[in-house]
Amino acid sequence: MQPGSESAYRPATQLAPAEAAITRLAKALRPEPAPKGLGGVGRLTRSATRSAVARLTRATTRLAPTEIEELGLRARRGDADAQAELGLRLLSGLGAGKDKSEGLRWSRLAADQGHAHGMFQLGSCYYNGDGVTRDLVRAYMCFSLAAARGVPEAKRIRDLLAPHLDAHQHQVARVGIKQFQGQQRR
């Protein structure tokens, strides 16, 4: 087993306490009742992710087609706020058609510019395996970067994930965070 490979992750049974805590956090963040059929599965649900980020953006309302076009135009011009909002809307289907791959792309572009909510959305995707392979180290990195930029939900989730990463995974995350921060300073 190579360190850093997916097989180096702790077994799912060892993640159960963190996933249960994340499920409790997701329920606390979500204003509506938990969707039926989750059966206690410890995931940041799309609804919880949408609720947490929507509190911090204006993405809780439907947009008129002209507003969606304007948002897309601003996003294509490199506006990180517009990219994060468009990413959220496409990932969740709020006010725009649901398209995970495009939502992930816009969230990643916003995160690459250091946008806190883009990082949070990207971390949620890595944690849940939405549109990407589930990767707890990358999720931890994204939540850490979002927490450093003032997203309280990111800090709570990062702190819940931390005990379930081994020393090597923490080192990989620290290196990745430092590399990202170094790129942001340029």
A few lines on this structure:
The protein has about 190 residues and is mainly alpha-helical.
Model description:
Helices cover about 65% and strands about 0% of the residues. The protein is mainly alpha-helical and about 190 residues long. It has one domain (about 15-30, about 40-185): Serine Threonine Protein Phosphatase 5, Tetratricopeptide repeat (Alpha Horseshoe). Helix 3 packs across helix 4 (about 80-90), helix 6 packs antiparallel against helix 7 (about 135-150) and helix 7 runs antiparallel to helix 8 (about 150-160). The model is unreliable at about 1-15 and about 25-45 (pLDDT under 50).
Global mean pLDDT? 74
SS strand fraction: under 5%
Oligomer kind:
single chain
- Which sequence of SSEs, written as H and E, runs from N to C? HHHHHHHHH
* CATH level-4 homologous superfamily: Tetratricopeptide repeat domain
> Can you identify the CATH class?
Mainly Alpha
Number of domains: 1
Number of strands: 0
Unreliable runs: 1-17, 25-43
Structural class: mainly alpha
Q: What's the CATH architecture name?
A: Alpha Horseshoe
Distance between the termini: 37 Å
Q: Count up the helices.
A: 9
Helix content: 55-70%
